[in-house]
């Protein structure tokens, strides 16, 4: 629960430092249930002129026609850009650049091109286009392009607003020039194509834990008359103890704060009671390690027992296993390239290519040398790796001893966090969250994307209680997951042991990197898009724990010690249990991203059951392991392989409904625009099905969304650049789903059109 910034910056938020003494036990119905709140800024505006066009008749330009299927997609993109910009009468001094995080999805064959607007040689930080291309055809595109100082002073204005330390804020105001003069600035030029960008690095910034990155860009700002202007701003990346901000501050005094995105995403807080290239042969063969953990699919200690599980890691997603990484990418190796002739470091602790897991009792930013469990050598079998077998049996104690009791079992909880985080990495990889699309790995095996960004996973983080959060900077910078203890019961409950919370947090990294491209972490900062960032995490966590026998599920119930969990409603297809619809977003209490996310997750849950009813249920979400030559067998997971008229293999299609919806959700994230609305994300999922299956599930998808008010006749009226408006539920589906005939390409408004009103 947060108090968010308004336009006048009247915001407080989750704040405070690590607790020096154990927090008192709280009843789960106590209004003061959350022991610590982290201050967080997050606001901005939606550009009213932004569009996401995902139906052929919506893609109207002067003369652009599909090019031959073999045409390089970058050539298609440049041709399309030239045409669509000409249609908007773009002047010669308005330019664009194709970003270097554009990529082709090897599973779907769709190329995702990300474009940034350049004006007078400078970026428009929210002037984005994403163009989705396959076989010479533009499938869809999103467009928020607009046509028409001293960095330290701007930064100081932001730090005054952002710091949770009120005494420091007062000191910054009273000794303003003194603090500014203490800041040092260094400069670095970088080039994208023939376009140069100057980056500043500002050091000695009060309350920042690392040098602040700064560059001057343009940002689109709505004006009172409804028009849009370009304002020159300083764009900052500010890493603080509990936050990691991307902020735009006016370059001209008085340095108004224009937009803020917090790359740190909190766990939902409790409510009061009311085909693939072969693996490079030079990589080492991993040994299977053994872990005493709650196995994959067991959400928390209330659902099952711990067991010894031997795990090698997915051969495709983690080709060297979970405990090996190159010395050159190892934060502990101090630029050592090899040891004893080997380029690879093999560890017997919770340290590897995907995840660094450890305690963080002090709640600090330092992590490289934090405490980690040491796996024991396997007994007499050289074909097995380390064994991570640690007791977990916390006892009820006096309140003042509860924290120390929880700390006794840190080895077990770090092991669990390491295991769950690696399983999530491998699962999401198999559905397309790979190196080129911005996943989190220290070494990328020559597959593209930026390296040195494995997940830093803090267990029992001392900076708070009863929460969790994830910080997602752009590709090439480490994501950071912080898991807390919950003082909701005696003994304390450890969030590291509730897989649903861990999956929710790691899914912030997934949705942030896939939406708008891996180099843009600012697309899910607020409003409906920020809410969906929360909703995807809930939906994926719920889908992963689900079984072939349908059940309703609560989010965070074990950690919160509350059967109904930490949401307004549990996730259910029964409207008597969960009545959420699109219109629910207009109700009091649904302005925050977590409440918005509940509605989106509920919609996806209903949609998923439509696909399960049609296609059945897979007991495992993990696809078959690749063969030695790198090809993927279909097994009982994928349909038989199919080929197009050119002899090219089509994307593999999951057979079952639960695996299919996961694939469509991830593919939809790649297709949708930056700052998507519910309508945009819905349309992207429907288009993802059109690309993957030819639209076989068109009606099932529409029926699921329409059941919760997001049908073709759903509307929002009076929406402002900052959100809001009056929503109306729409329960209609396209005419073709009612037995009628409909030509989606005719451009006519049949029941509000092919993809809604």
TrEMBL record:
Cofactor binding annotation: Binds 1 zinc ion per subunit.
EC number(s) per entry: 3.4.24.-
Top-level taxonomic group: Eukaryota
Matches recorded under InterPro entries: FTP_domain, Fungal_virulence_M36, Peptidase_M36, Peptidase_M4/M1_CTD_sf
GO cellular component, one term: extracellular space
DNA damage is among the record's keywords: no
SUPFAM superfamilies: Metalloproteases ('zincins'), catalytic domain
First and last residue of the signal peptide: 1-20
Alphabetical list of CDD domains matching this protein: M36
Coiled-coil intervals: none
Lineage: Eukaryota, Fungi, Dikarya, Basidiomycota, Agaricomycotina
Residues at the active site: 505
Molecular function via GO: metalloendopeptidase activity; zinc ion binding
Domain FTP: 101-145
Record key words, sorted: Hydrolase, Metal-binding, Metalloprotease, Protease, Secreted, Signal, Zinc, Zymogen
Entry protein name: Extracellular metalloproteinase
Family statement drawn from the similarity comment of this UniProt entry: Belongs to the peptidase M36 family.
GO BP, sorted A to Z: proteolysis
